[in-house]
Design goal:
It is a single chain. The chain has 242 residues and is α/β, with parallel strands linked by helices. The protein has one domain (19-238): Ribonuclease Z/Hydroxyacylglutathione hydrolase-like (Metallo-beta-lactamase, Chain A, 4-Layer Sandwich), CATH 3.60.15. Helix content is 14%, strand content 33%. The protein contains five helices and 15 strands. The protein is globular.
């Protein structure tokens, strides 16, 4: 199986918020062996854990060259940069399990449906569906880009580590209320989700040990890192998503 070469160390740093730049794959120790994280593009990433491959929001605009097919696919929402039937078909096997909210399952047949607040253990991975939605931002007055209950963020438990995938969301109460998150992937881009400063303030509320900004397009990530620079125990990892 092809592994993408590590460019920089993935060790946790102590003290004030640390910023680590531009590795393509990180390896994080867990109680049950290494968890390998491969950023792909935008909101798409791959996790490797205990010989299982988990793809998140696979998208045809990402480079999947040499990457293995999925044992598990997580889909967060119905928008094309998250739900891409062509790419899902390409990377799935006969045995692949797809987990998605009900709105996605209308298009992606055979998906295991998890709605906000529900959880399920699949192949030893506990998957919890977390709300993701807009509070104020939308395409027109009275409408939101992401309605509450339609899409899922997820918290995965892998070898005792808790990994949070925000999906498309603003700084909602459910994110701020998260506890004991080791690794977080937090979105930021306007007009669809939230600006980097708001994302930084939300991270301060739940204090993950490691946070990856993703789904950020042309956002100024220095605003996000500056919002967290005085926070002890939070490591910001900037990776090449575009």
């Amino acid at each position: 199986m092809l592994r993408r070469k590590l460019v920089l160390s993935s060790l946790l740093l102590s003290g004030s918020c640390a910023v680590v730049l531009a590795a393509q794959q990180d390896t994080i120790p867990t109680a049950d062996g290494p968890l390998k994280i491969t950023p792909i593009k935008h909101a798409s990433l791959m996790l490797e854990f205990k010989n299982k491959i988990i793809h998140v929001d696979p998208w045809s605009e990402g480079d999947y060259t040499g990457l293995p097919k999925a044992d598990l696919i997580l889909i967060t929402d119905i928008h094309g940069d998250h739900m891409d039937p062509a790419k899902i078909k390409e990377i799935r096997k006969d045995s692949t399990v797809i987990v998605a909210p009900a709105a996605v399952a209308k298009t992606v047949t055979g998906a295991v449906v998890l709605n906000n607040g529900e959880s399920k253990t699949i192949d030893g991975v506990l998957i919890e569906a977390i709300p993701m939605y807009n509070l104020v931002r939308g395409p027109s007055p009275g409408k939101l880009f992401h309605d509450k209950g339609r899409g899922n963020g997820y918290v995965l438990t892998l070898g005792g580590r808790h990994l949070y995938l925000s999906g498309d969301t603003e700084c909602i109460p459910e994110m701020k209320a998260l506890k004991n998150i080791d690794i977080a992937f937090v979105c930021m881009n306007l007009p669809y989700t939230m600006p980097p400063e708001e994302a930084g303030q939300c991270v301060k509320a739940f204090m993950p040990k490691i946070v990856y900004p993703y789904h950020y397009r042309d956002s100024d990530l220095s605003v996000f890192t500056n919002a967290l620079k005085s926070e002890k125990g939070v490591e910001v990892r900037l990776r090449k998503w575009y």
